[in-house]
Design goal:
5 strands, 58 residues, N-terminal domain of TfIIb, five-stranded antiparallel sheet, mainly beta
């Protein structure tokens, strides 16, 4: 289930404060930062915004 569009308008990358977009990745869905290209996993419909657990975009 995709995240609510209003949530995506206000959520920012915790590392660089860049905009994030929801995308399908090889390991599931995630939020990708447009600026620093980190992918934050979405687990059970909850975004995981821990910078240490983010991974580089493919």
């Amino acid at each position: 289930m995709p995240l609510h569009p209003e949530l995506l308008e206000i959520v920012r990358c915790p590392k660089c404060l860049g905009n994030v977009t929801e995308r399908k990745t090889k390991s599931g869905s995630g939020l990708v930062c447009d600026a620093c290209r980190l992918v934050y996993a979405i687990v059970n419909e909850i975004p995981n915004f821990l910078v240490d657990e983010a991974r580089p975009s493919e």
